[in-house]
C-alpha cells in the first residue's frame, strides 16, 4: 500500500552543509578527461586561435565557480578589494586547491604597469602533453589562463589573461607564464584606493 | 657499452609505431625495421597457436648466440620489445617501466592518435632517461 513504511527523509541538497570535499583526485583520471576535452574541441574548430579561445572559455566557467566556493569555504565570505590581495589569492589559495601547491612565482611586469605574471615550471594540465611542432606556440595552459580570468572577473578585476611558453636556459622544457593584463578601470580604482 | 641495441613498439595490427636504436650494433634503416616489426608480430601470433599448452600469450624471450629479444605484450595487444646483448638482466622490469611511460606520455597526450606512429617529445625524453638509468645501474653492478 502506498504510504505505509518508512517516511523518506527529503532533505534539500541546499540545506546540507558544504563539505570540505575530497582533497585528492586521481591525476590520471583528470589527465584523460582533459585530453578528451582538448580532442573534442579540436574537432569543432578550424584553427589554433579558436581552440585556445575554447579552452579559455572552458576554464572561465571553472574559475567563476572556484571563486564562489573558495570565498565561502576558505575565506569566510570576505571580499578582496585590492589588486595585490586578489593576485596573492589566485597565486596561493586557488593554485593550492586546484593543483596541490602554490604557484612558483608571482611577478610584476617591468614594461607595463598593468601586467602581472604567474610562472610555473610546468603546469599540471600540461604534464603529459607534448605539443606537435606544427602547432606552433599553442599552449593547453590556455585552460588555466581561463580559470584565472574567471576568478578575476568574478572578483571585480576584469583582465585579459593568456598563457605563454618561456624558454629557459639550461632546461629542455620551457617554463609556462600566465600573463595577466588588467583593464584600465582596475588600475584607476587601485590608484584611488591607495 | 650499451646493453640494449634497439627498442620497438608495435601496435595491435603489427605496424611499427616506435623505433629507437642505441649504438651501431642494432642499427637498421626504416624499411628493415618495419619489416622486422611485422615479422615479429606474425611470429608472436603463430607461437600462440603452436603452444602445446592452451592459454599461451606469445613469445616473451628469444635467446640467440649474439642477442636476446625480450617482448612484453600489454592487455590491449600493443607489443614492446628490445633487442639486447645476451644475458642482460632485469629487462622485463625495464619493459614494464617503459609501458608506464607509454601510458603516461603517449596515451594522455591529446595530440596522439591511437595506433599511429609516436611523435611525443615527453615520451622521448623520459624513455632516454629510463634507458640511461638502466645502463648506469648495469655498468655499476
From TrEMBL, chain A:
Keywords of this entry: Endoplasmic reticulum, ER-Golgi transport, Golgi apparatus, Transport
Gene Ontology CC terms, in alphabetical order: endoplasmic reticulum; TRAPPI protein complex; TRAPPII protein complex; TRAPPIII protein complex
Main location: endoplasmic reticulum
Species name: Nyssa sinensis
Protein name stated in the entry: Trafficking protein particle complex subunit
Subcellular localization: Endoplasmic reticulum; Golgi apparatus, cis-Golgi network
Signal peptide extent: none
GO BP annotations, alphabetical order: endoplasmic reticulum to Golgi vesicle-mediated transport
Family, similarity comment: Belongs to the TRAPP small subunits family. BET3 subfamily.
PANTHER family reported in the protein's UniProt record: 41-2 PROTEIN ANTIGEN-RELATED (PTHR20902), TRAFFICKING PROTEIN PARTICLE COMPLEX SUBUNIT 5 (PTHR20902:SF0)
Gene3D superfamilies associated with the record: Trafficking protein particle complex subunit 3
Pfam families: TRAPP
Subunit and interaction comment: Part of the multisubunit TRAPP (transport protein particle) complex.
Automatic annotation (TrEMBL), chain B:
Keyword Transport: yes
Gene3D superfamilies recorded: 3.30.450.70
Main location: endoplasmic reticulum
InterPro entries documented for this protein: Longin-like_dom_sf, TRAPPC
Record's GO cellular component terms: endoplasmic reticulum; Golgi apparatus; TRAPP complex
Gene Ontology biological-process annotations: endoplasmic reticulum to Golgi vesicle-mediated transport
Pfam families: Sybindin (PF04099)
The keyword Transport belongs to this UniProt entry's keyword annotation: yes
UniProt subcellular location: Endoplasmic reticulum; Golgi apparatus, cis-Golgi network; Golgi apparatus
Annotated SMART domains: Sybindin (SM01399)
Domain of life per record: Eukaryota
Ranges annotated as spanning the membrane: none
Keywords: Endoplasmic reticulum, ER-Golgi transport, Golgi apparatus, Transport
Sequence similarity: Belongs to the TRAPP small subunits family. TRAPPC4 subfamily.
The protein's assembly and partners: Part of the multisubunit transport protein particle (TRAPP) complex.
Protein name listed in UniProt: Trafficking protein particle complex subunit
Source species of the chain: Nyssa sinensis
